[in-house]
Amino acid sequence: MAKQLFTAGTINGVLFNNRAMVAPMTRISASETGVPGEIVQHYYASFARGGFGAVISEGLYVDQAWSQTYAFQPGIVTEEQVAGWRKVVKAVQQDGARFIAQLIHGGALSQANIYRDTTVAPSAVQPVGQQLGFYHGQGAYSLPQAMNSDQIAAAIDAFAASAERAVKQAGFDGVEIHAANGYLLDQFLTDYTNQRTDRWGGDIAARLSLTLEVIKAVRARIGADVILGVRISQGKVNDFHHKWKEGKAGAATVFALLQAAGVDYIHVTEYQAWQPAFSDGQQTFADIAREAAPDTVLVVNGGLDNGELAEAQLAACADFVAIGKAALANHDWPTRVAQGETLRALPDNVLSPVASIKQSEI
Ligand SMILES: Cc1cc2nc3c(=O)[nH]c(=O)nc-3n(C[C@H](O)[C@H](O)[C@H](O)COP(=O)(O)O)c2cc1C
């Protein structure tokens, strides 16, 4: 069947009404202790009412150690956090969308954490760039401590335990491991932030091994039937234009290893999904993923602001598309696209879910 925005699709046997997903977006709108409340519930449910087949949550932190990344970020660790999510999940599902929990460990990019005042990373390398001001950060990132084996094992277990809580207690339809955008798992994958000489460092396959171990541990806890995805990027929030020095061959290795690890979907994100991934070739990052992981569902994100751009990715290689900022401006993006209605311009203030709900009048 031709993949088009408004045809149904499946991931690991789970039916999705259409191919439009809301991309994961941190909203820093939980309580100080990471509990999502009514605003968060209303915010997420409005995307379901607006016709999205699925919503991927913002990154939820996974432990009471070093994973929290931003102030007022929600977690999926404490009973209160899980109970908060249970209500949000119910509201989204009642309004007809699938809901996937994104799990994050901030590593060296953590700029606020109620549990720790230090940061950890693969190696003691200070992140490039500046903390994100729109998430209340200021100035340079802290110098992280290099993680020891026990801390790495604990982080793997935190992802797995959080995945189990997300699915079995909060009721999410699946989980997405955040291995993109510069956070802990991407710090292991990235050559200049991972200088380890043990099994977690070395070539690109070795640097991916923490992500692969997390996938294995999560799968063991959630079972074969629950959706498990992974998000991968070259760019980072603190190093937007970063390109993998291993080029296409390195990317192909990463995607093939992720497929072999048994993820149900790979979610690739680039600034503009249709641009060549590397300067010495024409293939997009998504094309390379499609070629190297032909049996895995592919979710594509990045600048797909309107129906034409989204359909072009589905025609080229994507199974699903994830819409970020255009969804903030149009919580009813799928309905508008389906009906040929004008889309609202991208929002100036991407921070506030309240502003985003208001702008969309959902
Ligand atoms: C306000 C905001 C928060 C974001 N938070 C996350 C996040 O928690 N996890 C993640 O993987 N990406 C996050 N992103 C990146 C988006 O998922 C997406 O990759 C990016 O906005 C590009 O897609 P777009 O052009 O459709 O907006 C965020 C983006 C925005 C604008």
Automatic annotation (TrEMBL):
Pfam family, one: Oxidored_FMN
Presence of keyword Oxidoreductase: yes
Domain NADH:flavin oxidoreductase/NADH oxidase N-terminal: 5-341
Keyword tRNA-binding on entry: no
GO molecular function: FMN binding; oxidoreductase activity
Residue runs in coiled coils: none
Keyword tags: Flavoprotein, Oxidoreductase
Annotated protein name in UniProt: NADH:flavin oxidoreductase
Protein source organism: Pantoea latae
Lineage: Bacteria, Pseudomonadati, Pseudomonadota, Gammaproteobacteria, Enterobacterales
